[in-house]
Amino acid sequence: MIRNALPEDLPHLAAVERSAAALFRGTRMDWVADGPTLAPAMLEEAAARGHLWVAWHAEGGAVGFLLAGALDGDLFIEELSVAQDHQRRGFGRALLGQAVRRAREEGLAGVSLTTDHDLPWNAPFYASAGFQVLDESALTPVLRERLAQEAAHGHDPAHRCAMRLAFS
């Protein structure tokens, strides 16, 4: 079940994020597995705006979440995490679908994100949901700045991309 995050969900999301990040162990992004989780204030603000959704499983509680925010006329996906023992069961795709529905309801132009372009659970996953990689000429100044900030925080710019699902 996908639903808006409730205040009582928020303390459990760091464990979901940490579990999902463990998937990066043994990759060139190994450092992500031990990196910081999202700030509680960021989660609270997104929940208050209706831009934080939780995948809820009767036996596991909160098993995934998607955090988004408005950016450059789109709904921008800040984080999509599903606990390792619940991955590949459709929770990530369902969370993504909820974000797309919300962006349409808000009258936004599309949904965008930045990600690693070749790890299979990153860009290939989003491409399978209709997102397209933006080439250099299609990057807005805001997305260029976002990618630059990510590079400053340790992401290899040679492996990063911006992706977008545009609404007609």
Label the structural class: alpha+beta
How helix-rich are the residues, as a percent range?
25-40%
- Unreliable runs: none
CATH architecture term? 3-Layer(aba) Sandwich
Question: What is the CATH class?
Answer: Alpha Beta
The H-and-E topology, N to C, reads as EHHEEEHEHEHE
State the shape: globular
- For the largest sheet, list the strands in their spatial order: 1-2-3-4-5-7-6
Tally of separate domains:
1
Q: Distance N terminus to C terminus?
A: 28 Å
Oligomer: single chain
Query: How many strands in all?
Result: 7
Beta percentage is: 25-35%
List the total number of helices.
5
Global mean pLDDT? 94
Q: Main β-sheet: number of strands, strand sense, barrel status?
A: 7 strands, mixed
**CATH superfamily heading:** Gcn5-related N-acetyltransferase (GNAT)
CATH-assigned fold name: Aminopeptidase
Radius of gyration: 15 Å
GO molecular function: acyltransferase activity, transferring groups other than amino-acyl groups
Protein name: N-acetyltransferase
InterPro entries: Acyl_CoA_acyltransferase, GNAT_dom
Organism: Teichococcus wenyumeiae
